[in-house]
Design a protein that fits this description.
By secondary structure, this protein is an alpha+beta fold. Helices cover 22% and strands 26% of the residues. The longest helix has 14 residues.
Amino acid sequence: MLGAQRLARGYRVPVAEASGLGDGRTEGEWVYFDEMPMSQSDFHHAQPVYEDHPGWTEDISECREFSELPQTAQDYVLRLEELVGTRISVIGVGPGREQSIVRHELAPGR
């Protein structure tokens, strides 16, 4: 479940979209990984590469449909889905059990 209420009220939201590794010889020259680096040394030295996304100031705790979220929140969810290669089925918009947006049924046909 994506906890969007706590995540981004009024802030810029960083998303690590890849990792990078400097070659140690040339300043500013990086090797980017869109998957986990294979060697232990590369993994240890890798740094996250962030995309910044605009946050939102609107209260989303009463939203129950994806279309009710601010456009910046919708764009954020869609970008996360694109980066991880799967859909986000439930978005938490507050601490209560009923404060959820169900985009895709978790157990279709039940």
